[in-house]
Structure formats: C-alpha cells, structure tokens
Amino acid sequence: MSTPETFTLADLGLKLDTAADTEKHSSPLSSSSSHTNILLNGNTFGPPACTHLAPLLSAQTSLHTINLADIFTSRLLAEIPPALSSLLTSLLPLQKLETIDLSDNAFGLNTQAPLVEFLRKHVPLRVLILNNNGLGPEAGTKIADALSELAEKKEKARKEGKEVLNLETVVCGRNRLESGSMKAWSRCFQKNRDLKVVKMVQNGIRQPGIEVLLKEGLAGCEKLEVLDLQDNTFTHVGAGALAGVVTGWKELRELGVGDSLLGRKGGMRMLCEALEKGQNGKLRVLRLQYNEIDGRGVGMLHEVVKKGQLPQLRRLELNGNKFSEDDVRVETLKVLLDERREEAGDEEEEGEWGMDDFSDLEEESEDEEEVSSEKEEEMEEEEEREAKAEQILRDVEEEEGMNVSLEQDEEVDALAERLGKTDMIGQGPKP
Predict the structure, then answer these.
(1) Which of 4, 88, 119, 245 could form a disulfide with 146 if both were Cys (CB 3.0 to 4.6 A apart)?
(2) What is the pLDDT of residues 359-390, one digit of tens each?
(3) Distance CA 273, CA 278 (A)
(4) Taking phi first (over 0 means left), then psi (-120 to 50 degrees means alpha), and beta for anything else, what does residue 170 get?
(5) What is the pTM of this model?
C-alpha cells in the first residue's frame, strides 16, 4: 500500500506494456513529488511504459531508495536496453537517491550498457544491489570499471566542496563473475576503500580469482563490516589469502565463507591462526557450512573461541561438514554461545544466535581420517599445480598483444638490417 513517503506496486505481477497501462497505477506519482521510497519490483514493464514513468520518477526530488528488481520478466532482449535507459536516465538528476536494487533482471553483455552508464555517473550512489543478473565475467568487468570511474567522480566532487556519500554496499551475487573479472573488481575496491558491505556469493570464482580479490582489492577496505563470499572456491590458496588479510578488518561483524572448500588442505588451520591474533574482536557471525571441516578443524575453532579472541561471536554455522555432533568441543561451543545470549538479554530471532541445525553432517570415520592425513600433502601439491596453470593462462592472455608487437619488432629489425646493407640511391649492396 502506498503512503505519502512510499509509492509501491511491489510484487503485483502487473504486465504494463503501454503508457495507458501504466497511467492506471501511477497517479500517486503524478500527484506528489515527495516520495522517498519507490517499489516497482515484481512487475514487468515495456519500453513505452518506462517512457511514461521516466518524467514521473525524475520529479521525485526527495527519492532515497528505488527497487527495480525483476521488472523485465517475459520481455524480449531487444526491449530491455531502451526500457532500462529510460528509467535510469530519469534517476540521474536525483541527488538524494542513494540506494538502488536491480536484482533479477537480465543484464548480460547485450543489455548492460544503460546500467554501466548510470553507475559511471550517479555520484550519490551509496548502496548497489545486483543479484542474479546474468552478468558473466565480461559484463561484470564493465560494471566494476564503472564503479571505479564513479569513485573518481566522487573524489572530484569532494574537491569541489560538495558533500558526497561513499559507496558503502555492493551486493553482486549469483552472476557468474568468475575469476576473469576479479582484476577489475579489485581495482574497484581499491578505489572504493570505504566499503562496509560486500556480498559476492555464488559467482564461480576459483582460488586464483579469490586470491586476487582478497589481496589486491578487499585488503584495503579497512572499514569492512560484512563480507559474504559463500559458494565460491577457496581451498588452501583462498584460505591463505583470507588469513593474510582478515586481521586488517577490525570492524568486521559478519564473515560468510561457507560452501567454499575452505576446510581442505590446511585452510581451516590458516584461518584459525589468523583469528587467534585477536584482531577481529567485533566479529558476530561466522558462516562455515559445507567446507569439509573435520573434527580437527572444529577443535582449532574451539580453541580460538575458548581463548576469548572472538568475544562478540554470537552465531556460528557449521552444518554440512565432517565431524560428529556429539564432539565435546561442539557442545562446548553451543553452551558458550547460549550463555552469551542470556548475558546480552537479546530477544532477537533464534537464527541470530547460537549454532545452526546439524541436519546434514557427514561424520568422518577413523579410516577416512587416516587417508585424509596421508594424502593431504599430495592434494595440496595438486591444487598448487592447478593454481599455477590458471595463472599461466591469464599471463598468456595478457601477453597476446605484446607478443604480436614483439613479432612485428623482429620483422622491422630484419628489414632495417637489409636496408643497412643497401646504399641510399638504390645502387645495390654496399661493398
């Protein structure tokens, strides 16, 4: 229901093709320009409908937040760019608009241009949400580069004496960004160092990409409060990178690295050793589900908590790993977290405190533990070879242009040598 502050058509499932279709529902926007929140998500808009909405949106000078998630369902690929351009262009003049959600829209390589243009220019942007947009590594690179350019525009505006918000939240999950776009995202995070929330779950980022993202990008974001990289591939390479940078995030409150193969090949040991340094005292939530963490890994985590190095930890998620629920250290962790909740007198929902449900644990037998121990070094070497192979492939791609130049230089040198043996008036070789 719309209010003087909020205009909403959220999740009505409307199919608005024309201006006439839209006019039936947009009268509150026509009669008032003081809305602070607009929710158009969960409907589908054609280009004429978006053209009709554009001037109504641009008149909302108090607008703070707009939800444009899932607004192009059933639309042809060719319809999306002009429709999106009409909407986003109308939002550019709105200097109070700092939050935009564009999730669940298809912004692949063929449709991303209007979004990239908006992100390059909208200096007030503080919160960007892009979940499930089908970006892929190439379009993802363009988005990241646009946010880098945005950081430069923000800095320029500050030098001109303007008050400008930092980009604080980037949510870009389920987009198959892959390792190929991580250089661009690292540059983006280098330039937007005041980020507080970064969520990039389920993006097919493998260990070399995770390493680049953490070491070259997020390491410099010292104000980071929430980091969620679940359902990507860490292994010991990513775990080592995480261990190397996590101590620099003194404000970190939530860390999500579940379903990332973090527990394999010493990864859990590296993370626990980093947390044991006591630099993450504000950490409240730690998500480590489905990481092949065994009893030894639980023991290491137990020691960190027992020593008081995570004094504010209130939620620990470990389901889907390989240890016994009856492990005494697990029980000790449960009791400790329950005691903390009682001391805090917190009435928040159950999911905010304690440990998650162990409905999917895979207990590791003694035989499996022996095999795991014997093969750990061999598996680690295999993972290192894989990481090196991926690095070589990236290096080859980067040097392709250089190789062409080198070949051309060699041809030029050979030609120059032949000319040097010939006199300048064409009378044949020099004696």
Answers:
(1) 119
(2) 999 876 555 544 444 445 554 555 555 555 55
(3) 10
(4) beta
(5) 0.85
